[in-house]
């Protein structure tokens, strides 16, 4: 996703990742926020094993998200994500 408000808020992508790490992600059913951990892809990233989601940025303009629908253990899932993200980052021309 490209930063939709880059001219007005160039740090939006960075703040998005920071919010995932500090506040988590709210759920629609009123449960406690889902917590995210640091993900070392790109410049900065966050992931949730419970949500099977990985977010990362390569600058302040582009935010990426990778989601899985598999039940691998956490370390295996992170390793798969790192491999996929490395390929995406290598081929991305923004």
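^ structure tokens above, recovered residues below v
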């Amino acid at each position: 996703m490209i930063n939709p408000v880059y001219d007005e808020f160039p740090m939006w992508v960075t703040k998005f990742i920071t919010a995932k790490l500090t506040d988590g992600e709210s759920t629609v059913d009123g449960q406690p926020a889902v917590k995210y951990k640091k993900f070392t892809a790109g410049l900065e990233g966050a992931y949730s094993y419970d949500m099977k989601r990985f977010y990362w940025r390569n600058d302040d303009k582009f935010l990426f998200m990778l989601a899985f629908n598999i039940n691998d253990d956490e370390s295996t899932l992170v390793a798969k994500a790192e491999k996929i993200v490395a390929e995406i980052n290598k081929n991305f021309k923004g």
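The beta strands are 37-38, 44-48, 53-57, 63-67.
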